[in-house]
Structure formats: structure tokens, C-alpha cells
Amino acid sequence: YGRRLYDLMSAYWPTADKDPDATPMIVDFARIWRDMPKVVFSRTLESVDWNSRLERGDPVEVVTKLKAETDGNLEVAGATLAAP
């Protein structure tokens, strides 16, 4: 994530499953989101929560290192990935 996407996601998902009107899909994803380790790239954030870690380094270098250290899959998310 970048700062803006992290701000957006962390404003909703940490407690989304507590909403009495939440659908089963929302409840499931909220739990998955909280449990999933996240890397946030930002030069302006001071700290992050919700099983996240803050990175200020080069994203390519950080992701390359993560790939080498991880046996499973990595998910990359960001606003520009969803843009046309």
C-alpha cells in the first residue's frame, strides 16, 4: 500500500465486521484484512497499525527481498493498479 490507500483501508476494515449490517463477505474480509501482514510505503506516515509495517525504502528492493523471504504468494495492491 501507499499512504492514501492505507488511510482508506485502515479507516474501514479494522472494525467492519462489528457493523450489525455487515454482510458475511464483509465480515470474512475484515478478519482476513486484519490478519494479513501488510507493507505500507510512505515518506510521510509516522506509524501504521493493523498488522502493518512501514517502509521508506525503494519499493522494488523491498518487494524483491520479500519475495526471496516468502514461500507463498504476495499480493500487491494500490490505487493505480485498479485504475484504467
| Count of DSSP H/I helices | 4
Coarse structural class: mainly alpha
The mean pLDDT is 90
- What is the N-to-C succession of helices and strands? HHEEHH
Query: What profile does the largest beta sheet have?
Result: 2 strands, parallel
Pick out the low-confidence regions: none
Radius of gyration over all CA atoms, rounded: 14 Å
Amount of helix: 40-55%
Beta strand %: 5-15%
Distance between the termini: 18 Å
Total beta strands: 2
- The oligomeric status of these chains comes to single chain
Overall 3D shape:
globular
How many structural units, i.e. domains? 1
Strand order of the largest sheet: 1-2
Features:
mainly alpha; globular; 44% helix
Please describe the topology of this protein.
Layout: H1 3-12, H2 24-35, E1 38-41, E2 52-55, H3 59-69, H4 79-82
Parallel strand pairs: 1-2
Can you characterise this structure?
With 84 residues, the chain is mainly alpha-helical. The chain has one domain. Helix content is 44%, strand content 10%. The chain has four helices and two strands, in the order ααββαα. Strands 1-2 form a two-stranded parallel ribbon. 4% of the residues are buried. The model has no long low-confidence stretch (mean pLDDT 90).
